[in-house]
């Protein structure tokens, strides 16, 4: 109240009134400062109420003391009865009545301004009792008790339901008081000191609740999220749980066995957080509360992703500077994080925001998570922009599948305008990844065509290029469904209008081209062998390896088809026949009858020469072809069986027909070096890739 205003609690008298009337007026002032039920329960509009802005000053207290000394009786009055201690609870009901009266006063006088008020004289303004100041002081003391730093606390205020109710109701009353004081003109004019006092306490209360709101968010998680984990991460997961449990402040909950999903707050904590939001919003501090929530949940979410998924944000530039080894470790982490965000973390954040801020309509959820979703997509595009190599295909397809399968559910959590933006970003990222995958296959095809190594593989074994290509295609076809969609959706056709059948089989056609390139390359490399039979073995080895890989994988077999496999098997039989003709056909020529008979008589010199030539040729074949390699056991067995089926009957018949014409003893041992059983055993030593000689094998046979 301004200094020129007259005390509203004194009765107005004319200047001509006598001294006894003046003493009576002073006596009324003295009584106004004494606590009594009549004053506490007076109507807030009654002028006999005492304004705390004027009645509680030191000057007034001094005047009251003088009044007692100068009383008409000349003696000190009897001491008042002992006061009953006042508490927030005892004053709350009276404050509620005052707020109701003040609200009514505000409505009655919101459009009425008297001439006296315009001139600055006493008008019909609202009086504020002393207990309001007392209520504010008690509330400030309560805040100080809970806000004191450095003191050991056995419990926190939010673990005591009675204290929670007391604090929240008190701050609500202070907020309502401030709102009414600031919106009632007469109060603005006459209660400036009270408004300043209440405003200061309200600010302190809001700062306290903002800090407590943040602490509740940070420290009240009572259960770790159940994320998608790998089998080898269980130990690490347990370690995270143990370390976090030591730092948590657990809020007691009803029904401890109740399942609590991410983010792991009990229902009691969520209700308390929502009430704090309501009180801060009602006091005009909604923005501060939202900011505290936004910062807190962002930090908690990122900390959770690091603990549970080992995820940390990386920029596009950082991704492109990573070595493939580093990137190969980052991509599985990214996949795991996106899947868990889509199925667990983001839905949990949305539910939490809706519970704590019921009228928010998803904006806080978007602020917490949208930037992270965009960062996920940035990572995927950065990977697609790195230098292409065949080894990156499978990780790129993993990212592609995660975007295809995981992001749609994530998109649905966002409002329509952001959903469309995310969907567009996902489409762009998938297109880049798909084009990269297709180009990797083209690079593989070109690398096979351009492979011009001139060093033949020893023993005609499977060429490393064949092994690499077939294993690569086998693993690629584990992503067959994805690759078929990738080639169908992202292939850049040379012609604008391509037949639908060709589009549907775009991936199969690419595999066919790779296989044709591999065949052509192996055909060229077979010519590096000067020995024709060995080149046939080389082609059989590589051809059989290819066929077995295709038959052993249902996915790649489905792509290549039975027709292709039958054609390749037919080609293998042709190489087999060529080998047998080039190697064993010549040896069979020594077992013919031509030139051994003359006039129905055996020409012994010719017979002896025939045995010598057979032995020498067989020794050379054995010596050479035991060093050749046929790794496929079935092919190795087929070759040996076919050789035995041709050679043993012919050799046995030749021995039976002409062996008797050699003299027993030295002559037989000299020219008949092998028995049919010896030949059969030596054939079984072929294609093992060893360096043992025929003489050694024969010696072992004969000992």
Summary tags:
703 residues, mainly alpha, Methane Monooxygenase Hydroxylase, Chain G, domain 1, disordered C terminus, 68% helix, rod-shaped, Monooxygenase
Q: Brief overview, please?
A:
This protein is an all-alpha fold.
Describe the structure in your own words.
The chain has helices spanning 19-32, 37-40, 52-55, 58-69, 88-109, 115-118, 130-147, 161-182, 185-190, 192-219, 234-247, 267-282, 286-309, 316-321, 324-356, 363-384, 393-411, 416-450, 464-476, 480-490, 500-504, 506-526, 532-551, 554-589, 604-625, 633-658, 666-671, 676-683, 694-702, and strands at residues 597-598, 601-602. With 703 residues, it is mostly helical. Among the domains are: 310-429, Methane Monooxygenase Hydroxylase, Chain G, domain 1 (Up-down Bundle), CATH 1.20.58; 459-583, no CATH class; 590-702, Monooxygenase (Up-down Bundle), CATH 1.20.1280. Helix 15 packs parallel to helix 17 and helix 17 (393-411) runs antiparallel to helix 18. The chain is rod-shaped, with a radius of gyration of 49 Å.
